[in-house]
Design goal:
Layout: E1 3-8, E2 15-20, E3 25-29, E4 39-41, E5 49-56, E6 59-64, E7 67-72, E8 78-83, E9 90-94, E10 97-102, E11 105-110
Antiparallel strand pairs: 1-2, 2-3, 3-4, 5-6, 6-7, 7-8, 9-10, 10-11
């Protein structure tokens, strides 16, 4: 397991999300760290994952293979995918607006509430 980025959940002080060069998004309950991640996202599509942030309490946005991908932590579904020209080096989130830095460029995306 190769962890690249880790972030705290916005509303749950014992939950973190991580991404790695192995192409996985992992959601962890730090009270049960010896059991491994509570949720794992991994598909053959993913090659590398870079930054990750919580977009909402049950959604994470990650830089994945030249795209920003929004995942629903509860349903394990991909909720949205927006292509980038390059891999994201960092991702910032505030009020459902995402700024992705990639190759000396900033891209912004605004996500509507996709919780059903």
């Amino acid at each position: 397991m190769q962890i690249y980025s880790v972030r705290w959940a916005p509303t749950c002080r014992h939950t973190v999300v991580s991404t790695g060069f192995d192409g996985k998004i992992l959601v962890w309950d730090i009270r049960q760290h010896d059991r491994g991640p509570s949720v794992t996202y991994a598909t053959s599509e993913f090659k590398t994952m870079f930054p990750v942030e919580f977009l909402a309490p049950n959604q994470v946005v990650a830089g994945v293979d030249r795209a920003l991908v929004v995942y629903d932590v509860r349903t394990h579904d991909v909720r949205s995918r927006d292509d980038l020209e390059y891999d994201a080096d960092s991702v910032l989130v505030k009020d459902r607006v995402v700024v992705a830095a990639h190759r000396q460029t900033l891209s912004t995306f605004q996500y509507m509430d996709t919780v059903q």
